[in-house]
Amino acid sequence: MERKSFQLGDVVEMKKMHPCGTNAWKVIRMGMDIRMKCTGCGHSVLLPRSRFEKRMKRILVHGEAEAE
Ligand SMILES: [Zn+2]
């Protein structure tokens, strides 16, 4: 079974898309809570890690490669 693993800078797809119509979120902070930023509108949200893992569908882009 594959375990969802993610790291800082990853762009992930969630089960629900953001109201702005984008479903690509960049992980910008890791810890007990995960902060992710909508790549469409720039809105950022903070989620407890367990909830983040439940809501995440897949990783679109593996992070740390691109500098912003
Ligand atoms: Zn958005």
From TrEMBL:
InterPro entries registered for this protein in UniProt: DUF951 (IPR009296)
Superkingdom, taxonomy of origin: Bacteria
Protein name as annotated: DUF951 domain-containing protein
Lineage per the UniProt record: Bacteria, Bacillati, Bacillota, Bacilli, Bacillales
